[in-house]
Amino acid sequence: MSRRVAVVVASVAVVLGAAAMVWWWTSTADRASAPRDIAQVYLTALEQGDIDTIQEVRRGSLSPLAIDAFAGADHIVDARIDDVVVDGDEGAVTASAELAGERRPLQFALIGDSDGWKVAGDDLGELSASTTPGAAVTMGDAVVEADTVVDVLPAVYPVVAVPEEVLSGRTDAAITPQESVHVVVETELAAGAVDAVQRAVDAWAEACTVSAQSVPASCGFDVPWPADFTSIASIDYRIDAYPSVADLGVDGVLVASDGVLVATVRGQAREGDEPRTYRTDDWMMRGAITFDGAQLVIRAF
Fold this sequence. Notes:
This protein is of the alpha+beta class. The chain has three domains: 29-118, Nuclear Transport Factor 2, Chain: A; 125-189, Immunoglobulin-like; 193-300, no CATH class. The protein has helices at residues 3-48, 51-57, 64-71, 193-208, and strands at 77-87, 90-99, 102-113, 116-119, 125-132, 136-139, 142-145, 150-152, 155-162, 167-168, 170-175, 180-186, 188-189, 229-241, 244-245, 253-269, 276-292, 295-300.
């Protein structure tokens, strides 16, 4: 081999060796920086409320409740990465952010595979709530049964008693990864509770006064037709005034009074063939105010 050929071959070897070194250094640098990059993308998405990006960089799916809750949450502010420690295909992130005006630690794990790095799934906290009266709350935009534990993303969650037209009560819960929080929502009747309950009473009264062949139970009125008929074919009702809800007690007892109801009865009369009318000027409906999830329910006495 000539000296010139040998020099060329040696030069090629040097170039290939340098390229290999650059590839090795770049690959190593990318591998070291990728976990930090993913952590930063995740934290930025938490700040911006970007649920799509959050789900892209996480391992495992979020529950529908977690997604709805996060949609109505106050998001973290000024997130900072303090440290990222990588050991093989595992990483540990130490970060912090402001939640409800207080800087709080955020620690979560990363895991790497052939598809790249992901947030490992230990980034969630647990949130539950109870309220009395009431049977449910909203966490952000999610309606949640009382005492149900929901795995949620780091954020500040407004927890509100429902239904809001009847109940008033709110507390905020700041959640960080691996934190378990239970809040008690102090609840009272809302300013518009009487109007909301009155609408429910009106619906109850209308259900009680559908044309029928008998007098309904638990509706607060009677039609004394046996004195005038041996049998009846129909009873038709006309509400002249709905029973009125004047006030609501803290014990959940409902009393609606001063209703006016007219009932027209047709059937086999004891005397004559004309229908008879019966008027009630003191129609009163009584029941208990209860809740089924986020719905107001009146249980008749």
